[in-house]
Amino acid sequence: MGSKLRKFSPGGCFSYVYLIVLSILCLFPLLWLLVSAFKSSSEMLANPTAIFPKEWTLENFKTVLVTLKFTVNIKNSLIVALSTTVIATFISALAAYGIVRFFPKLGNVMTKVLITTYMFPSIMLVIPYATVMSVLHLTNTRISLVLVYMSFSVPYAVWMLVGFFKTVPIDIEEAGRIDGGNRFQVFTKLVLPLVRPGVVSTAIYVFINAWNEFLYALLLISSSDKMALSVAVKTLEGADIMNWGSMMAASAIVVLPSIIFFCFIQNKIAGGLADGAVK
């Protein structure tokens, strides 16, 4: 028997229409940015409200990538963002698992202490971080950015992952230990697959924050060959005559990696919630 058709519901129809309209409103600025990157600067100034260009061109991307050499800045941001994501996610997963399994009574207190670090605005920590990096001789290095970004990402990531690790039944881990697995094997082969959605969500959060961060990338890096992409885009505003085509193309380049990164791993969020238990 085929599935029965759902009964028409005015409330349900209104909900779908409302969500569609809301999605369009949320996506429109992004779509307008991406489409405008293919307009010439003259066309953008002549008719800035037009959505689609009369003539599509890649000249803006050629200017940004070849003439302005944004490929170097893209490489720098990718190195820093991916390094921060991998290291911070791994450390946070170990820390969250340790809090849940070895310090269950103090877990809530510890996570609250960690999350209080977000009470302070990042601008307040500029001088301490700059001093520490100077003492360690890490100023004007990508390592300094990775360390700074990890100090902001790890506390919040631990707080996020603690809630996911609490949902893992202890019986599954005990069964794994009975089957001969050590603590690390149980953690990697049984527990991590169960909390995969949380790990992926944490990785997305860490990557986007590291990719888009501007303040410390501006203050800790002085060499143009190590400059992050977010800072390079900001330098376009300093031109005597604003080239809106180049600005739109550069902004599109900033936005696209986050979207691609999310699309690449979003299937991991919903998949395999019970894979560890099956194994």
TrEMBL record:
Signal peptide: none annotated. GO terms for cellular component: plasma membrane. The chain crosses the membrane at residues 12-35, 78-100, 112-131, 143-165, 244-265. It is found in: Cell membrane. InterPro entries: BP-dep_ABC_trans_perm (IPR050901), MetI-like (IPR000515), MetI-like_sf (IPR035906). Its main location: membrane. PROSITE patterns: ABC_TM1. Pfam families: BPD_transp_1. Residues 74-265 form the ABC transmembrane type-1 domain. It is a multi-pass membrane protein. Keywords: Cell membrane, Membrane, Transmembrane, Transmembrane helix, Transport. GO terms for biological process: transmembrane transport. Belongs to the binding-protein-dependent transport system permease family. This is Carbohydrate ABC transporter permease. It comes from Candidatus Flavonifractor merdigallinarum.
